[in-house]
Amino acid sequence: QVQLVESGGGAVQAGGSLRLSCAYSASVKCLGWFRQASGKEREGSAVAVIDSSTGNTAYADSVKGRFTISQDNAKKTLYLQMDTLSPEATAMYYCAARESLYGCSRFGAYKYWGQGTQVTVSS
Length: 123
What we know:
By secondary structure, this protein is an all-beta fold. Helices cover about 0% and strands about 45% of the residues. It is built from no helices and eleven strands. The protein has strands at about 5, 10-15, 20-25, 30-35, 50, 55-60, 65-70, 75-80, 90-100, 110-115, 115-120. Strands 2, 4, 5, 6, 9, 10 and 11 form a seven-stranded mixed beta sheet that branches. A four-stranded antiparallel beta sheet has the order 1-3-8-7, with no helix packed on it. The mean pLDDT is about 95.
C-alpha cells in the first residue's frame, strides 16, 4: 500500500507559476500527475509521469515545455513545477502511483491515488 498526499495547490493569475508536491509513503516505480477539471471526468492519461528507476519522464502535449515533473527519492516527494499557467490548467490535480515491470506510461491503470490539490488560474 502506498499513501500519497498532495500539497501546493492554490490560486494564481495567468502566466504565473505553482509547484505541486506529493509525499509518498513507499518507493514505487511509476509516479504521475493527473487532473480533473470541475464538471468533467478525470483525464484518462497523466499530465506527466516519471520512472523512479530511470528518471525518464513523459508529458502530455498540452503541457510540454511548461510543466516539469521531478522527484526527491530521499524525501519520497514528487513535484510538478507548472510555469506559464493558463486558465485551462484550472483543475484538481492528483498524484498517482503504480508498479510496472516495464516503463511508465501516461496511460494505463494507476493503483494508488492521493486526495488531490486544487489549482485555480485566473485570467
